[in-house]
Specification:
- InterPro entries: OMP_Chaperone_SurA, PPIase_dom_sf, PPIase_PpiC, SurA_N, Trigger_fact/SurA_dom_sf.
- With 452 residues, this protein is α+β, with helices and mostly antiparallel strands.
- It has three domains: 194 residues, Triger factor/SurA peptide-binding fold (Orthogonal Bundle); 100 residues, Chitinase A, domain 3 (Roll); 102 residues, Chitinase A, domain 3, CATH 3.10.50.40.
- It is 43% helix and 18% strand.
- It has a four-stranded antiparallel β-sheet. It has a four-stranded antiparallel β-sheet with strand order 5-4-7-6.
- Helix 2 crosses helix 3, helix 4 packs across helix 5 and helix 4 crosses helix 6.
- The chain is globular.
């Protein structure tokens, strides 16, 4: 058992004390041979009985007690299930043990954030949590009730997500009250950034995601290893945003680690170099920076104040055929061949309906699609496509065969500089983020944490 004792004892003493109560076991002695009446007969217990409540012996076993508030093994298990779910259920056994330790650290931080917010009269109401949970469920195209059932089938729960929502919301409000008002950005600083932007027109700009892990000289090797393992999991198909939400200690964790659009000069030198050396869709790290390590993900790239052809807005018609269930490879190839031959005879968007009728295909119109929002393999095709032309057939065994027909294109104008207010907000966010890290670090130092 490890106990961290600090000056926060007075504050912790004010919190409600929660103790883990042991289960008392009643031993029923069996009657000795020859006894006419069994000792349990007086209880009149049915022989064919059903237990109406399943009891998990680990359900209330504390893993840590943070200023008197218990974090149970069940809390850790349910949060772990979310990570496994985000990785498609593919996490190596040796990785699970390390992830459990990190999840416990995250739950401890969340507990500290909620406690500190409550100490400053900030609480998140039940209706607010329900509304946020409903928005998450909508992202999965489910009702809150169905989503809660879905989480249960995966070993997690609605309570686990709600706890994370509560911590993120409470912490955000606390920072707005106690940190943000004391962060000042002068007009001269903003003007200097605008001048640099104008001078950098045509230079590369990056859409970057970051996972930040704090480290000390004593645990640097361990944190470096943790970062390497996270990178391995993401490269094997894990969600960068999901890992950022669970593990990043930066305030951007709440938005999946997204830093937005940044130029190399806005990043620490080590991160700027790492980002410049990778391609869109790649990950780099662990990168040593003051205070710890960062993992960076390059999700997009463009030129400063320069129009990006991928921002062109297209008017499209999609023509598609779904393979009947049980379609074999030979029959699917025949359908694709016929589809391709018909599309070669396309004479502009006006002939799409006639071709669809011949093929028994479906047609969907969409007049507001950016090239950058299309799947990566389609983007170069659409850049070279002329109005009235169609892409080559594409698809999969599950989705069938389809083609996109270009019916119109609105090319982008040269990008304008971010507004004065946007730049000021970005600088403020960076400074709030830095102070938030220090704030949370101090909370950890002041906490009474009993590990079991």
């Amino acid at each position: 058992m490890v106990i961290m004792k600090t000056a926060a004892f007075r504050r912790a003493a004010k919190a409600s004390s929660v103790r883990c109560l042991g289960m008392a076991l009643l031993a029923l002695a069996a009657a000795t041979p020859g006894t006419a009446q069994n000792a349990t007969d007086s209880l009149k217990l049915p022989e064919d009985l059903t237990i109406f409540e399943d009891r998990d012996p680990n359900l209330h076993k504390p893993t840590a007690v943070v200023n008197g508030q218990i974090i149970t093994k069940t809390d850790v298990d349910q949060r772990m299930a979310l990570i496994v779910l985000a990785n498609g259920g593919k996490i190596a056994d040796e990785e699970l043990a390390r992830l459990r330790l990190q999840v416990l650290r995250n739950l401890i931080d969340e507990t500290l954030q909620i406690q500190e917010a409550a100490a400053n009269d900030i609480t998140i109401t039940k209706p607010e949590l329900e509304e946020s949970f409903a928005r998450v469920a909508t992202n999965f195209r489910q009702t809150p009730k169905d989503f809660a059932k879905y989480l249960t089938t995966k070993g997690s729960s609605a309570a686990s997500i709600s706890r994370q929502i509560e911590a993120e919301t409470a912490w955000s409000r606390l920072l707005r009250r106690k940190v943000q008002p004391f962060v000042n950005v002068s007009q001269e600083e903003v003007k200097a950034v605008i001048d640099k932007l104008n001078a950098s027109k045509g230079a590369d700009e990056y859409r970057v995601g970051e996972i930040y892990l704090s480290a000390t000289p004593e645990n640097a090797d361990q944190i470096f290893g943790n970062a390497r393992n996270i990178i391995d999991q993401i490269r094997q198909g894990g969600s960068f945003a999901a890992y950022a939400r669970q593990f990043s200690e930066a305030s951007t964790a709440a938005v999946g680690g997204d830093l937005g659009w940044v130029r190399a000069g806005q990043l620490p030198d080590a991160l700027a170099q790492a980002v410049a050396e990778i391609q869109v869709g790649q990950i780099a790290g662990p990168v040593a920076i003051p205070g710890g390590y960062s993992i960076v993900f390059l999700s997009d790239k463009r030129k400063v104040l320069t129009a990006d052809p991928r921002d062109a807005v297209l008017s499209l018609k999609q023509i598609s055929i779904i393979f009947p269930k049980g379609t074999g490879e030979a029959k699917a190839n025949a359908i694709v061949k016929t589809f391709g031959e018909q599309m070669k005879g396309l004479q502009g968007c006006g002939s799409v309906a006639d071709i669809a009728a011949k093929l028994g295909a479906d047609v969907i119109d969409n007049d507001n699609v950016k090239i950058r929002d299309l799947p990566a393999p389609l983007q170069p095709l659409m850049l070279d496509l002329q109005v009235g032309q169609a892409t080559p057939p594409f698809g999969s065994p599950d989705s069938g065969v389809r083609s996109l027909v270009l019916c119109g294109r609105d090319d982008p104008q040269d990008a304008g500089a971010p507004s004065f207010e946007q730049i000021m907000s970005q600088i403020e966010d960076e400074r709030v983020n830095k102070r938030a890290r220090i704030y949370l670090r101090d909370l950890r130092r002041d906490a009474i944490i009993d590990y079991n």
